[in-house]
Design a protein that fits this description.
By secondary structure, the protein is α+β, with helices and mostly antiparallel strands. The protein is built from five helices and seven strands. The chain has one domain: Gcn5-related N-acetyltransferase (GNAT) (Aminopeptidase), CATH 3.40.630.30. It is about 30% helix and about 25% strand.
């Protein structure tokens, strides 16, 4: 199985696995009310540490090739946030997602890496479908998902307590359709 941390780079970005040494970094991301506004809100340090251990680090070995990765600028090494390709909790669906520190919003990073993660999921992992979910009010995230070539398929609710009780915007990408006409990453458009 190809290790995504060895291959998931773009012109401007690279992904790497989270480690326990990233606890402060993740806590900083999870404590920003603007970053977490549409993901359930600010997490306590304890909840952030639990997420790091169980949903991130523990997940790598349980689900080879999938996970949540720290996203860095290649030119500076600065961490800009995280990107994920993992199971929707309580479901068999594989989702793509991201969180970025506010200093890096509006640079096309979320779209650029989402396209790369989708390509990885479809080509390297052979996934037939990848989905995405976002808060109905989070129109910026919905634009990113559309630019990355996913299709809005209405709204869905999920039973797992990690998700808000109301419906979420639901997006799908079919491997054959997406690979036949993949979107161009923002960095490549310059």
């Amino acid at each position: 199985m190809q290790d995504p941390q060895d291959s998931l780079t773009t012109e401007r970005l690279a992904l790497r696995r989270f480690t326990l040494d990233d606890a402060d970094l993740l806590a900083r991301l999870n404590s920003d009310p603007r970053v977490t506004q549409y993901t359930g809100g600010v997490l306590s340090r304890e909840k952030s540490d639990e997420l790091l251990r169980e949903r991130m680090i523990g997940y790598y070995d349980q689900h080879p090739g999938l996970g949540v990765w720290a996203m860095h600028e290649r030119s500076t090494g600065a961490c800009v946030g995280l990107h994920l390709l993992n199971h929707v909790r309580g479901e068999t669906l594989i989702q793509v997602g991201y969180l970025l520190f506010t200093d890096y919003w509006g640079r096309g990073y979320a779209t650029e890496m989402t396209i790369r993660v989708l390509r990885y999921g479809f080509e390297a992992l052979g996934l037939p479908q990848i989905v995405a979910i976002t808060d109905l009010a989070h129109v910026d995230s919905q634009r990113v998902l559309l630019k990355a070539g996913l299709v809005r398929r209405g709204e869905r609710s999920f039973a797992h307590p990690a998700y808000q009780p109301g419906p979420l915007a639901f997006f799908e990408g079919d491997a054959a359709e997406w690979l036949a006409d993949p979107p161009v990453a923002p960095a490549a458009q310059r």
